[in-house]
Amino acid sequence: MVSGLINANPVVYEKKERRARSASSCVNDEYAAEQIDQQEVFDHVRDIKDPEHPYSLEELKVITEDAIEVDDERSYVRVTFTPTVEHCSMATVIGLCLRVKLMRSLPPRFKVDIMVAPGTHATEAAVNKQLNDKERVAAALENPNLVDMVDECLAPTFD
Amino acid sequence: MAEASQLIQHIESFVNLSSSPTHQSQLQAASLDVIASLLKKNVLTIETLVREMGMYLTTTDDVIRARGILLLGELLTHLASKPLDDATIHSMLAFFTDRLADWKALRGALVGCLALLRRKSSGGVITTNDAKAVAQSYIQNLQVQSLAQHDRKLCFELLECLLQRYPDAVVSLGEDLLYAICEAIDGEKDPHCLMLTFHIVEVAAELFSDDLLANFASDLFEILGCYFPIHFTHSKAEDFDVKRDDLSRALMFPNLSLSHIMQAAFSSTSLFEPFAIPLLLEKLSSSLQSAKVDSLKYLSHCTVKYGADRIEKHAKAMWSSIKDAVYSSHEPTLSFASESLDGVGFRENVILTESLNLLDTVFKQNSGLFLSWIIGDEDINLIFKSISSYKTYKEISLQSKQKLHAVGSILSVSAKASPAACNSVMESFFPCLMHALGLSVGNSTQDCFPNDGNVLRGKLNHGALYLCIELMTACRELMASSEEFKSVAAPANERWYCLLQSYSASLAKALRSTLETSANEDSYETNVYFGVKGLLILGTFRGGSLIISNSIFENILLTFTSIIISEFENTLLWKLALKALVHIGSFIDRFNESEKALSYMDVVIEKIVSLASSHDFSMPFPLKLEAISEIGATGRNYLLKIVQGLEEAVCANLYEVLVHGNPKSAEVVVQLLECYSNKVLPRIHEIGGFEEVLLRFAVNIWNLIEKSVTFSSQGLLDATMKAMKLAVGSCSVESQNIVFQKAFTVLSLGTYFPLEDAASNIPILLNEFQLTQETSISSSREAWICSLFASVIIAARPQTHIPNVRLVIRLFMTTLLKGNVPAAQALGSMVNKLGLKSNGTEVHGNCTLEEAMDIIFDSKLWSFNDSVTLRSNGGLENGSSIGLTDICRGATNIRSLQVHAIAGLAWIGKGLLMRGHEKVKDITMTFIECLLSNSKLGSFSLEQDYSENSSESVVKYAADAFKILMGDSEDCLSRKLHATIRPLYKQRFYSTIMPILQSLIIKSNSSFSRSILCRACAHIISDTPLIVVLNDAKTVIPILMDGLSILSNDVSDKDIVYSLLLVLSGILTDKNGKTIGQEAVIECAHIIIDHSIILISYPHMMLVRETAIQCLVAMSGLPHARIYPMRRQVLQAVSRALDDPKRAVRQEAVRCRQAWSQSLSMKGESGDCFNHVSQ
C-alpha cells in the first residue's frame, strides 16, 4: 500500500449552485417526456466523495458538467474526468465509482463510457482500458474491500 | 421506638452500597424522601436525627462517613423552605464547614453547605460570620482542580453562591479569596463548570475594588483568555447540552449561554482592557470564521463597557482592523438582475454586519477621532480618485469593486451615526461625488423642466452614483431615526441638509436620464437599478417638501408612472418602477406625509386607475392588473380609489357583454373579476371597513343583470359568482339584507320561474322534454339569475334574513334537478345556517331548519306526465308525485335526473354534516341504498349493455357523493362563507360510516358492488385527517389497496388515486403512531408492495408514480425478513422506473433502488465476506 496521501493538498473549488430547472412546458403536460440530459447525469455524480479527501468530485473539479456527454436517443453517456494529479493511483477508483453510480442511476439501456481526460494522467490508456472492460469492472466489484470503498464514496450522493 | 428502628432502617438503606446500582439508587431516593417527609411533618427533629446518625457521621470508614454526610446534606436540600432555628443552622453549618477539610467525604459537605447557604431568608438565616467561615474553610481546604467533575461543579456553585449572596462576608477576605478563585478556575475544561467559572469571574470583578483587582487582572485574564474563541471540536458529543453559543456568551450576559457569559466576564471590569483588546484584535485576523465573528461581537460589547477613555488607546488599531474586515468580507460583485430594491446583491454576511456594528459602536463613542481617520484615509481617497476613471460598473476591476462597496458601507455607517458626523462626511465627500457625476448646484425651480439636457446626455459615472446613493440612503435613515426631525421644524441649518437640497434637482434629473436606456445597452441593468433606486430614495425623504421640493417629487412619480404605462416591454425596468411606486406609496401611508399623499393620488393613482377602464389594448391586460393591485395595496385611500376604478371597469365591461353581447369585453371582464376577487378583496378584508363599496358592487351587478339581454359563457358566470360570493361574504348582516332584497326582486321579475306554482303546494310537472333541453343551461338568462342568487345565498351570514325561504327552497330544488350545482350548494348552505326552532329567534324569514327539512325531504314536489315512465320497483304509479329522495333511489328511469338529484342531495347532506345534524344519517343511508340496489341490478342485467352502463354510472355518482360530503370546497360552506362548522365532524362521520361500509364490503358478492363500495370508502378515507385513519390502519389498509387497484383502471380517477396514495404514504412514514401503524403495515407488506409496484407504471400522473416509489422507499425500512422475499420484484420494477419519462420519478427511483439494494447488501455483505474468507 502507498503510505500517505497521493495528493496531500488538493485545490478545492467552490461548488456550483444547484441550478433550478427552468420551468419548461413539460411541467404542465402529464405525458410529455423529459429527456435525460447533461445536467441530470451531472447531478448523479457531482456529490461522489473523493476516495482520499472529504470533498466531492465537483469541489475538486475532477468532473464538470461540460465533461459529460449525453445522447438520450442513442442511449449513450460518456463521462470524462480529470484526476487531480497526473500519477494519481486513485484514478481507477474514481472511475469505478463513477461507473457504479451511473450503473445504479441510469436505465439499463445506456452504454456508459468513462474516460480520463486526454493528457491528464500518466497511464491514461491503461486506466481507460481498465474502466471500460466489463469483465474487469465485474471482477473489481467482487472484491469486498473495493466495494466498501466505492459504497463509501457514493454514500453522499443519496442524501 | 418502632419509629426509631424504621429510621435506622432508612438511614441504613441510604448508606449501604452493597446492592445493584439501579435498584440501589431507587431505594436510596425512596428512603431519602421518607426521612425528609418525616422531618417536614415535625415527626422527627434534626437533633434526634443527628443523634441517631452520630455513628454514620463520625465513623472512620470513609465510604460510610461520606454516605452519611451526603444523606444529611441531601436532607437539608429537601428542607430548603422549612423554617429552622438559628442555633441549628449555625451548628449544622459549622459542622459542614469543618467537614470541607475531609476530602474523602467532600461531596456531602459541599451539598450541605450549599443547601444551608441557599436557604430562603424566611426560615432562619446565615450570619455573615458563618459565611465567612465557610469561605475561609474553602480557601484553606479545597483543591478544586484535583476533584472530579461533579464535585468541581459543586465547588463552583458554592463559590458563586458565596459571591452572590454574601458579598459582605467575602469581600473582607480580599486577596486570599481572589487568589483562591484564580487557583480554582485555572485549567478548567468541562463546559458546565466553565459556565460557572466565567460567571464567578464576572461577579468577583463587580464585587472587589479596582485597587485590589488590579493585581489579579492579568492573572485572571490569562486564565479566561485562553478559552477565547470558544470552539467545540466535538460538537456532536452526546452530553454537550451546552452549545457553543452558550459557552461563548458566558464570557457577556450572565445566565444566558457560555459565549455570552464569557463575553460578560471579558467586559466585567475595565481593568481587563489592556489584555482583552489586543487579544481580540489579534483573533480578528484568525482564519476561523466563528472566531472572527466572536471577536467582533466581544469588541463591540467591550467598547461600550470599558468606556471611551480606555478604548481611545486602541482606536487606531481597531480602525485598521475594522477596515480590513470590511474590505475582505464584501462580495466582489453586485447582481442587479434580482428585482428587489432593498438588499440588492449582498448576501447575508455575518462578519460584514458584525464589523459594521462594531464600527457603529466605536464611531458613536468617539466620532471626532474616527471621522478624521475616515476623511483622511488614503484608501478611501484613492477609491474616490479612481472611480472617475471608470465609466460603467462592469469596467471596474473586481478588487476595486470590493473596495468600493466597503467604502460605501463605511461611509454610510458613519453618516448615519449623528447629524454632526453626517455633516462632515457629506461635506468632504458629496461635492466631489457630484463633481464626478458632472452635476452642479441647480436652481430647483428651473431644473424641474429639463429642456437643456446637454450636460446629462453623457452617461453617469456608476462608481460615483453608487456612493452617492449610499450616502443619500444614510441621510434618509438619519432623518427618519432622529427624533428632532419628526417635527417639521427643519434641520435647515444642518449642512448636509443644505448640500442635499441644493443638488436634489439636478440629481433627480440626472437619475431620470439614466432610466432612458434601452434594454440592449451594455450597462442596462446597472443603469436601471441605480436610476430607480436613486429616485426612490429621493422620493422617500421624510419631512414634507423640505429637501425635495414638491415639483421634484411629482416629477419622480411622473417618471415612474409613465414607465408603468409605456415601458411594459422593458421587464426589469417595469418591475423595479412598480416596486418603487409601491415603496413610496407605503412610505407615504406609514408616515402620514399629507402633502406627498396628495401628489401621489393625483399623479399615480389617477393614472393607474384609468388603466383599468382604458380601451388601449397595447399594454397587456395582466400587467395592467398587476400594477393596479400592487399599488392599490399600499394605503387605505388608494385602495378605495382603486376599488372604485375597478368596479367601474367591471360594470362598464359587463354592460357591454350583457346588453350588447360584446364577446371581447367578456375576456376583459373575466380578468378584471379575477383580479378583484383574488388580489383586491383579500386586501380589503385585511384593512377592513370597505362595507359600502362591497355592497355597492353587489347591487350594481344585480342592476346590470336586471337590464341584461344576452348571457354568455360559463367562464364569465363563474368569475362573477366568485366575486359576488366574496363581496357579499364580507358584508355585514344589514348590507346582506339589502343585497337580498335587490336580488329577490330581480329573481321574481324573471319570467321563467313559476313563483305562483311554487307558492302553492301543487307538485310541479316535470316532463322529459323540459329536462333534456335544459342541459345546456349555462347561457340562459334563468340560469344566470338563479346561479347568482345561489351565490348570494351561499355567502349569507347565518343571521341574514332571506326573503321567502320556502319559495327559494322549492326553486332551488327544481333547478338542481336540471344539474345546476350552485343551486344545490345554496340549499346545502341554507340547511347549514338556518336556525333551529328551539332557539326561538326569528331568523331566515320565519323558516326554521325543521320546516326547510320538511320541504326538502318529505314533500312530494314533482309529478310526471305520461311521457315519463316510472320504475315499477319504486312502488309509484303514473302521475303520482315524488320527492327528492325518491328520485335518488331511482323512482324514474331518467338517468340524468337521478344523477342530478344525487349531487343535490350530497350538497344538502354536506351542509347538515358540517353542523352535525343527525338527518345526515338518512341521507347517507339513501346513498348506500343507491350503491347496493343498482349493483344488484347491474349483476342480473349483465347482458343488457345499455342498462348496465347507465346504472353503473349512476352508482358511480352515488359513490362520488361521498366526496362531496367529505371534501373541503372553496365554493361553498367554507369558513370564509360563514358556514357553521362543528369541530371534528369529519372524524365523527368517518367513525360512523366506515364500519357500515366495511361490513358491506365483506358481505358483497359481486366484484362490481365491491368496487363501488371501495370507491366510496376511498373518498371518505382520503378526506379524513390522517390521525384518525392511522388508528385503524389494520382495517383500512386492505380497503385502501383494493381502492387503489380498482381506481387505477380509469384515467378520470387519477386525482383520487393520488390522494389515496398520499394517505398510504402518510401511514407508512408516520412517526408518532408507529406502534399502531407499523404493525398493520408489516402485516400487509406484501399487498402494499405489490400495489405500489403496479402504480410505479401508472401512466396518467407523474405524482402518483413518484409517491408510489416513495412508499417503496418507506417500506424498505421494515424488518428484513418480512420484505426480503419481495426484493427482486421491487428492484426490477424500480430499475424500469429509472427510464421514466419524468425526471422527478427517475430521481426517486435512484433513491429507492439504493435503499432496497442497501438493505440487501447490509445483510448480504457479511455473507460475502464469509465466502471470501473461506475461499
TrEMBL record, chain A:
Family: Belongs to the MIP18 family.
Highest taxon of the lineage: Eukaryota
Listed SUPFAM superfamilies: Fe-S cluster assembly (FSCA) domain-like
GO biological process assignments: chromosome segregation; protein maturation
Transmembrane segments: none
Source species of the chain: Citrus sinensis
Record-annotated MIP18 family-like domain positions: 39-113
Stated name of the protein: MIP18 family-like domain-containing protein
Key word Nucleotide-binding present: no
Pfam families: FeS_assembly_P
Keywords recorded for this protein, A-Z: Chromosome partition
From TrEMBL, chain B:
Top-rank lineage group of the source organism: Eukaryota
Designated name of the protein: MMS19 nucleotide excision repair protein-like
